[in-house]
Amino acid sequence: MFTAYHEALDWIHGRLRLGIKPGLKRMEIMMEKLGHPERRLRTIHIGGTNGKGSTLTYLRCILEEAGLSVGTFTSPYFEQFNERISVNGHPISDKEIIELANVIYPLSEELEKTEWGGPTEFEIITAMSMYYFAHIRPVDIVLYEVGLGGRLDSTNIIFPLVSVITSIGLDHTNILGDTYAKIAYEKAGIIKNGVKVVTAVKQREALEVIQTQAEEKKAPLYLLGSEFSIENHISTECGERFSFKSLFHELDKLEIQMMGKHQTENAALAVMAAILLNNYYSIFIEDEHILSGLKRAYWPGRFEIITSKPLVMMDGAHNEEGIQSLVQELNKRYPEKAKRILFAGLNDKKLDRMIGQLDEIAASITFVDFAYPRAATAETLFDISNSKNKRILSNWKEAVQEEITDLKVDEMLIITGSLYFLSDVKPYLVTII
């Protein structure tokens, strides 16, 4: 039995050594042992390559404005582990983490003795969340973010009210496949029989896979650009403004504070999901709830301005598509600024394509190390870059401090790459700025 928070956390994090073990059998066994808490929950399932966290946040805020208590399960955490299981945006307590770990630990020990082996870190946290929302802190609805893929992800034991697939990108190709179609097949694995699906997928080969899966499972499909659309989009000084149009409803002058065209797509997905909840599940959501929810929605590390003087921002662009969106937004919003970039990434990403895009806009680029099992070394990143003004500084804290100290009026600092890296940097930035 765990009596201290750090003991429970050490055990949970210790499961990382098992790596990724795709499959639902371990989750099914744990759910059975726990009396199937997942069946007690009303859920929304959110998968995709990019935009899951932002879409979840937009929808959470809309539902909160409508007066609902909303549980969320997200990954990775940004400043505190407890964020992964939250209620109305507030992380659960250390005491609750201990309580949940003590519930799941005996099941983990039992599984170790079976042919399936012990659960991974992510499976343990998923099981903890389901027990929590079913038995410790019941809520009106829970929003579940897929961890990896979808079909074999540990969250895929839920039967949601609505499924959301944000986008498809060439990420985790060593696990999910190396084409848009193969990755789409894994993402489409969250589609359930008869459950409505909302998506913003664009690539034809990926969309065909999702459409086929939806048809086979008789799941009504709502596609951005078809059943609902974004109109009159303009970028504002502190976000984006757009109108929403669907088969059911139209909304004008929606405002969001997260920057980028891609964020209007994430917000539109959330609005469409909210409208479906209102129309088909008697969850009362008015226009004012959507307007105010979107306007206040905030998700850290998404084109986030840390300070304007000097101009320092961070963005969790952790794959090729994410970097592409970041570069487009930087060029649009700050064409006159010289861009100094601080980057750290993971080994299992398309680092050559990511760094290649950054090289094109960087006045200078600094590569750093950070403590994470899958992190690429600064030397590896440096060797990939073709920038004429690149450097290595292994200690990222020293790099951050130096970059901010040297930053000139006509320059900006962009800290980007792995979300795990940004989750280390953000608390440190707060102490030095």
Key words describing this protein structure:
six-stranded mixed beta sheet, Protein-Tyrosine Phosphatase, Chain A, UDP-N-acetylmuramoyl-L-alanine:D-glutamate ligase, 2 domains, 15 helices, globular, single chain, 433 residues
Protein architecture, described:
This protein has two domains: 5-296, UDP-N-acetylmuramoyl-L-alanine:D-glutamate ligase; 304-432, Protein-Tyrosine Phosphatase, Chain A, CATH 3.90.190. Helix 11 (320-333) packs parallel to helix 12 (351-361) and helix 14 (396-406) crosses helix 15 (419-432). The two termini are 41 Å apart. Helices cover 42% and strands 21% of the residues. By secondary structure, the chain is of the alpha/beta class. The strands form three sheets. An eight-stranded mixed beta sheet has the order 4-3-2-5-1-6-7-8, with helices on both faces. A six-stranded mixed beta sheet has the order 12-13-17-14-15-16. A three-stranded antiparallel beta sheet has the order 9-10-11, covered by helices on one side.
